[in-house]
Design goal:
The structure holds 2 protein chains of 2 kinds.
Chain A: H1 2-14, H2 18-30, H3 35-55, H4 61-84, E1 93-99, H5 107-118, E2 121-125, H6 132-142, E3 146-150, H7 154-169, E4 177-181, H8 187-192, E5 197-198, H9 202-215
Parallel strand pairs in A: 1-2, 1-3, 3-4, 4-5
Helix pairs in contact in A: 1-2, 1-3, 2-4, 3-4, 4-5, 5-9, 6-7
Chain B: H1 20-37, E1 39-40, H2 44-52, E2 56-58, E3 63-65, H3 68-75, E4 82-84, E5 93-95, E6 101-104, E7 110-112, E8 119-121, H4 124-136, E9 140-143, H5 157-168, E10 172-175, H6 181-195, H7 198-201, E11 207-212, H8 221-232, E12 237-241, E13 244-245, H9 253-274, E14 280-284, E15 287-288, H10 301-316, E16 321-324, H11 335-350, E17 355-359, E18 361-362, E19 367-368, H12 370-387, H13 394-397, H14 399-405, H15 415-420, H16 435-441, H17 445-459, H18 467-480
Parallel strand pairs in B: 6-9, 6-17, 7-19, 9-10, 10-11, 11-12, 12-14, 13-15, 14-16, 16-17
Antiparallel strand pairs in B: 1-3, 2-3, 4-5, 7-8, 18-19
Helix pairs in contact in B: 1-9, 3-9, 4-5, 5-6, 5-18, 6-8, 6-18, 10-11, 11-12, 12-17
The chains are: A alpha/beta, B alpha/beta.
């Protein structure tokens, strides 16, 4: 019975069906299942399967995103139960994400957020046009391991440097790694502003984030 | 120096990509989107304009919903035909639906250095070099800011860039790199210096502004405000959608066209509401996102279809089109670059898109390549020639000559041959040499294209910009820079 439920959970993620995932999460709570087990033996299995078929070219980006969203919906449904039981999911790290001040381009940053949270990072997405001060405040508030800064224009890209300089000033660079992204970001730029890395796409960003937190 | 500009005109080839009924359907869908879903205009100034004209404005979300009647009425005041003025009036460009002009692409962030061949961050000198070479070609009719002058301060970068182009070319400048009112005002003052006053800009707009929308269904506030400043002084403005299947638009082509169209025509209608009769153009560079990475692809059959369909939409609204063609996703000038740039440019040309953007880039408009620039010019020349089609008359049927040669002869020594041989296309960068000659050097079009760019940069002297004007322009820029 429980095995069957786990399978259904995995399937809901595979189908990218957030409604089904939420319903199954509720069912698990009602049945008194360990919410952590529901995640690891149920939903995460689905995420991994989508990841595998993506890797061998059978699944595509929209399927990854939908699986990620279903997973997220399931986890937030299980969250109150985890708190009640005093349980914590082991996360890979905490990431603060933002599109920098003066820039309203959202999609790349949000895509990275979805991929990171599906891969086991705790993501705090501050949205677009976010001033450095708000990013820094969030980093300090949650004790972030990583900051992801997005920009689409060469004129707003300079704000990535501003955030890095600010982190430097506060002596936070040892504990907080910085990933930068957006179409105008190049390796030269990353070196120039002394960021910790960049990726041209969201899949690469997950790899980079994992690498940065494991090196820390 | 040659002042000729090559444009496609009076084409013999035709293509019907959308029927009038299909265009109407896309138009109706667009109006539904604008009325029911709305478009985001993140600028207080702009929201006030919409509200004053009776649109429904959600000030908190900055979303405008407008009835079909308001949009259609606003679009009626768009001028269907006008010219883009050049510093040299011989090079003015008539946007009348019967000319296809090519520009340089923009705005990239890296350059393959013309001397060393190494890839590096773009700077102001690159803008100068590219403009100078473009000035010398027949194919490039106008400029975009090709690459970002990243060695200049961010707050005046857009001004340094247009100044660098004017200093190195007499052709029209269309900037896609001015994103706020402050820079727009300064750019207008600079343009006014060239034509002898702001009032003259209406007659001779030596500058036009292209602004990108923020897909799906949004605009950038600063860009909108900059466009309004330009429109006030009679400079042509256009909004470019880059809505891409899967990410910023639906996976289906028709839906993506409707999303992009909603962005473009609401931006255009805004300009008309604020300044009725201001010159405007439609701009689009739609594409499909890559299924695996979600990245901008800059090529593929979807791009080719958008290239042709966008002009049908622009024609429906009776305004000129600035269309993204070329812009291959290839990492170096290669097979992929040749296919993508040829087909995208062919499809955008066969429907007579007024402006094509543009030559010179690799990796989806990010890396400038001088070799690619010259080869893209050749692609345009090939399409230019193809579009002329086949002329059938007594002279071209050449019956007297055929009779004179008779069975088994050859046509090499005929007067008719001598008269018409130069009408045949002679490529610059295609390898038609005997095999053994190739075997000795193993070079190809890429090497010759780069050599031509290097040579042009060395020898071409553009007509200089008046020294007094240069000094005044520099003053305008420095007055805006942080001390």
């Amino acid at each position: 019975m429980t095995e069957e439920l786990f399978q259904k959970m995995a399937q809901s993620v595979l189908d990218g069906d957030s409604d089904a995932a939420v319903a199954l999460a509720k069912q698990a709570i009602e049945a008194g299942l360990d919410p952590l087990e529901a995640i690891t033996k149920g939903f995460v299995t689905g995420v991994n399967q989508v990841g595998e078929s993506f890797a061998c070219g059978q699944a595509f980006l929209p399927e990854l995103v939908m699986a990620g969203e279903a997973m997220k919906a399931a986890v937030s449904t299980l969250e109150p139960e985890m708190q009640k039981r005093g349980l914590h999911r082991t996360m890979l790290g905490k990431v603060v994400l933002a599109t920098v001040e003066g820039d309203i381009h959202e999609i790349g940053k949000s895509l990275v957020g979805t991929m990171l949270s599906a891969s086991g990072f705790q993501v705090y997405d501050l949205g677009v046009d976010v001033p450095a001060s708000r990013i820094i405040a969030k980093v300090q508030e949650v004790g972030a391991d990583l900051v992801g800064l997005s920009a689409l224009l060469t004129t707003t890209m300079v704000k990535q440097k501003e955030v890095i300089d600010e982190l430097d000033k506060l002596g936070l660079r040892k504990t907080v790694k910085v990933m930068v992204g957006g179409a105008p970001v190049t390796r030269d730029w990353v070196q120039k502003i002394e960021a910790d890395g960049t990726s041209e796409d969201a899949i690469g960003a997950v790899g980079l984030a994992k690498q940065l937190v494991s090196a820390a | 120096m040659p002042k000729t500009i090559k444009s496609i005109t009076n084409p013999k080839l035709r293509l019907e990509i959308l029927t009038p009924q299909e265009v109407k359907k896309i138009h109706d869908a667009t109006l539904w989107i604008i009325e029911k879903v709305g478009v985001r205009f993140p600028s207080k100034l702009v929201l006030e304009i919409w509200a004053a004209h009776g649109a429904e404005v959600d000030s908190e979300k900055m979303v405008v919903r407008a009835k079909a009647g308001l949009i259609e009425k606003a679009l009626k005041t768009c001028p269907p035909v006008y010219s883009l003025a050049a510093r040299d009036p011989q090079q003015d460009l008539m946007l009348d639906g019967n000319h296809v002009f090519v520009g340089t692409d923009g705005c990239g962030v890296e350059v393959i250095d013309i001397k060393t061949g190494m890839r590096r961050t773009s700077c102001l000198q690159d803008v100068r070099d590219i403009s100078r070479i473009a000035d010398a070609t027949e194919e490039v009719a106008f400029h975009w800011v090709p690459v970002s002058a990243q060695d200049m301060p961010a707050e005046t970068r857009g001004l340094h860039e247009v100044k660098a182009i004017w200093e190195n070319s007499t052709k029209h400048v269309q900037t896609e790199s001015i994103y706020n009112q402050r820079e727009a005002h300064a750019a207008i003052e600079m343009a006014a210096l060239i034509v002898g006053g702001k009032n003259q800009l209406r007659e001779r707009p030596v500058l036009s502004l292209m602004q990108c929308s923020a897909s799906p269904l949004g605009h950038d506030g600063g860009s909108l405000e900059a466009a309004l400043v330009a429109a006030e002084y009679g400079l042509p403005t256009g909004f470019m959608t880059m809505a891409a299947n899967l990410t910023t638009g639906p996976a289906t082509l028709a839906g993506n066209l409707a999303v992009g169209n909603a962005e473009v025509i609401t931006g255009t209608a805004l300009i008309q509401l604020a300044y009725p009769g201001a010159p405007v153009f439609y701009a689009a560079a739609q594409t499909a996102s890559d299924l695996r990475s979600g990245a901008y692809t800059g090529g593929g059959p979807e791009d080719f279809l958008y290239g042709a369909a966008s002009n049908v939409l622009a024609d429906f609204y009776n305004i000129p089109l600035s269309m993204g063609s070329f812009a291959t996703g290839a990492k170096e000038p290669n097979w992929q670059a040749g296919i993508e740039n040829s087909l995208s440019t062919f499809m955008a040309s066969i429907v007579m898109s007024d402006m094509l953007l543009g030559v010179g880039f690799l990796h989806g408009s990010r890396i400038w390549s001088f070799a690619e620039m010259m080869m893209d010019c050749e692609i345009f020349s090939i399409i230019h020639k193809t579009m002329q089609g086949i002329v059938v008359d007594d002279e071209t049927l050449a019956l007297d000559t055929i009779a004179a040669v008779g069975p088994g002869g050859n046509f090499l020594s005929q007067k008719h041959t001598l008269k018409h041989m130069r009408e045949l296309f002679l490529p610059q960068f295609m390898d038609r040499r005997p095999f053994n000659e190739w075997e000795k050097k193993k070079d190809d079009g890429r090497d010759w294209a780069l050599a031509k760019a290097r040579n042009t940069l060395e020898v071409h002297q553009p007509d200089p910009l008046d020294e007094g004007i240069r000094i005044e322009m520099a003053k305008i820029i420095s007055s805006l820079e942080k001390k």
